[in-house]
């Protein structure tokens, strides 16, 4: 059984897969309490659903791309669920803070968004997304080396962009072009 907060169909607004029509499955719970969290739903009500019940609901959408998000999905062992979706021809991406990469290892794509920049994992993911504000100590990011795509994403407001943080991030990636700007396109477009 999965603790599902919500399922919805939209476009991916972040990272390498920006613009891809995707089915989002938001799971309950997180191991952190970040002050800048822009998604409080993972702390509220949820339904306990079987894999089959989730499949029946997502079949209503035309996309075959699923993004599991939260909260923090890797607090659960999701490999069986990911394998189940893949057996039904879904490509499965997971967004994680890196709590437990082994719990999501079956995913087709893993977006890692570390919150502790002093301890950034070296393996277990396909791209890295750093959430940055104008007050962030980005010197720690400059020391991090990886051949994976490295995204800088402005710390935004809950449903709208934060223009000051956006300006800071634009200047940062222009000065450090090995980083890529990720703007949470859905917030600019006003979609979920």
TrEMBL record:
Its EC number is 4.3.99.3. CDD domains: Radical_SAM (cd01335). Keywords: 4Fe-4S, Iron, Iron-sulfur, Lyase, Magnesium, Metal-binding, Queuosine biosynthesis, S-adenosyl-L-methionine. It catalyses: 6-carboxy-5,6,7,8-tetrahydropterin + H(+) = 7-carboxy-7-carbaguanine + NH4(+). One of its GO terms (biological process) is tRNA queuosine(34) biosynthetic process. It holds the Pfam family Radical_SAM. [4Fe-4S] cluster binds at residues 30, 34, 37. It is an enzyme of class 4 (lyase). Substrate binds at residues 11-13, 26, 69. Catalyzes the complex heterocyclic radical-mediated conversion of 6-carboxy-5,6,7,8-tetrahydropterin (CPH4) to 7-carboxy-7-deazaguanine (CDG), a step common to the biosynthetic pathways of all 7-deazapurine-containing compounds. This is 7-carboxy-7-deazaguanine synthase. It comes from Sulfurospirillum deleyianum (strain ATCC 51133 / DSM 6946 / 5175).
């Amino acid at each position: 059984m999965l603790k599902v907060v919500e399922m919805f169909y939209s476009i991916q607004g972040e990272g390498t897969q920006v613009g891809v029509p995707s089915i989002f499955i938001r799971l309950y719970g997180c191991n952190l309490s970040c002050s800048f969290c822009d998604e409080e739903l993972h702390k509220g009500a949820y339904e306990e659903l079987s894999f089959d019940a989730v499949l029946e609901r997502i079949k209503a959408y035309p996309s075959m791309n699923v993004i599991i998000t939260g909260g923090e999905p890797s607090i659960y062992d999701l490999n069986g669920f990911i394998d189940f979706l893949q057996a039904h021809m879904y490509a499965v991406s997971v967004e994680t803070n890196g709590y437990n990469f082994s719990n999501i290892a079956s995913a087709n794509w893993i977006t890692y968004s570390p919150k502790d920049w002093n301890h950034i994992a070296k393996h277990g993911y396909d791209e890295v997304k750093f959430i940055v504000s104008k007050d962030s100590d980005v010197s720690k990011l400059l020391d991090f080396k990886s051949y994976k795509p490295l995204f800088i994403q402005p710390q935004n407001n809950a449903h709208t962009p934060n223009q000051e943080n956006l300006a800071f991030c634009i200047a940062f990636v222009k000065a450090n072009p090995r980083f890529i700007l990720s703007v949470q396109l859905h917030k600019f477009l006003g979609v979920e």
